[in-house]
Amino acid sequence: MHRQPLLFMTVLMLAAAAGCKKPAPPIARPTPPPVATPSPDANRPPAPPTPVSEPRPVPPEPIAEDPISGRDIGDINKNSPFQPVFFALDSSEVDTTAQQALNANAEIMKKYPTWVISVEGHADERGTAEYNLALGERRAMSARTYLVSLGISGDRLRTVSYGKEFPFDPGHDEAAWAKNRRAQFVLTSK
């Protein structure tokens, strides 16, 4: 007997609790995007971009006519603006005196950027022909390497060795030999 009112009360409490429960909020459904109506311009291609004007190249300043540029190659080589570079006995080392001459030669080459130069290596008459040719080549390459280090393009410099074949001074003493141990610069094209 006691059980029934208790059971009835429990059911009543459960029913009341179930009745107090809040209903779930409605779930919003996404709205579809609006349907686009084609405009009359839809079939036209887009307009081309506005052209950009290219900068006009500025021509280089004309080099004022100077006493060297108007002369032909043979005349320039006859009265060469280039200084020869002299070397010590059995050496191809570029010393400080040779560096000064090469610095001056580099300035001339920078002033005339189209000139191509042949660097000729020479030796004195002492030694075998083979040795002197090799020494002349080392001297020409040393001068060329120094000029390249100063910013002269290697494409503008050719090297050749004449050994003892073309002495600057035909004498047979130390004074003549010192003049013959050299690198000489010859303009080959301008």
Defining key terms:
190 residues, 13% strand, 36% helix, 5 helices, elongated, alpha+beta, four-stranded mixed sheet, 4 strands
Describe, in plain words, how this protein is organized in 3D.
The longest helix is centred in the last third of the chain and has 21 residues. The chain starts with a helix and ends with a strand. It has a four-stranded mixed β-sheet. Helix content is 36%, strand content 13%. The model has no long low-confidence stretch (mean pLDDT 83). Helix 4 links the parallel strand 2 and strand 3. The chain has five helices and four strands. By secondary structure, it is of the alpha+beta class. It is elongated, with a radius of gyration of 46 Å.
What is the strand and helix layout of this fold?
Blueprint: H1 3-20, H2 73-78, E1 85-86, H3 96-111, E2 116-122, H4 129-149, E3 157-163, H5 174-180, E4 182-189
